Amino acid sequence: MITVSVVDDDRMLIEGLAAWLAEVPDVRLIGRATTVPELLRTEREPADVVLLDLLLGDRSDPVANVRRLAGLGRKVLVVSVVTSGDMARQMIGAGAGGYLTKDHDLPALVAKLREVAGEELAISPELALGWLADRDGDRPVLSPQERAVLLAYASGMTLAAAARSAGVQPGTAKNYLERVKDKYRKAGRPTYTKLELADRVREDGLAT
Questions:
Q1: Using an 8 Å Cβ cutoff, are 4 and 29 in contact?
Q2: Cα(70)–Cα(63) distance, rounded to whole angstroms?
Q3: What does the alpha-carbon distance between residue 50 and residue 53 come to, in Å, rounded to a whole number?
Q4: CA 203 to chain centre
Q5: Which residues of the chain are in CATH 1.10.10 domains?
Q6: Rounded to whole angstroms, what are the CA distances from 115 to 38, 39, 91, 110, 159?
Q7: In this structure, what are the phi and psi dihedrals at residue 148, rounded to the nearest 5 degrees?
Q8: Which of 5, 10, 178, 198 could form a disulfide with 31 if both were Cys (CB 3.0 to 4.6 A apart)?
Q9: Where in the chain is the domain with CATH 3.40.50.2300?
Q10: Quick one: 2-134 is in which CATH superfamily?
Q11: pLDDT tens profile 85-144
Q12: Entry pTM
């Protein structure tokens, strides 16, 4: 069962979403709010995924919203009417696990929720090609979890300490690092050691 909380100030959309998700056996809506602070105050328990609207009525900074949630270890799927690959990159860079435009149907939304819950990077299909074409060809796209473990480990932490910092088990952290190394290898930048990982963090500006 994947639990979801939604942050959106469109009450009609939220009510419709609640009705739709009631028909999905493995997804349950447990929280709803119009702002991120309201969600954090009222949520009875942290949901597996936060479904976050990009532009909220309180005019809060979308990047700050994602960073606040990601900083608490929350998995975030941003949804928006904004069909911009650059905006999607900003949200992923801030720590979101995915970005979906609002012109998709419920099955597409549920699929992306499952991907984010499963710690996969989830991007709207129509943005994916542009994302890959626009980004630097030798700079891999890392999931928020891969990036968190990489930053902790490359900063000098042991694998066990990096795993604790990222909120995962050591075995999971090791798998993330292997994925990161594989992505750099496929990008033509072979990376094997901790020092080389630290070099990639510096070269790609991942710590900023």
A1: yes
A2: 10
A3: 10
A4: 22
A5: 144-203
A6: 26, 22, 16, 9, 25
A7: -60, -45
A8: 5
A9: 2-134
A10: Response regulator (3.40.50.2300)
A11: 777 878 887 889 999 988 888 888 999 999 999 887 787 766 665 554 445 556 787 888
A12: 0.67
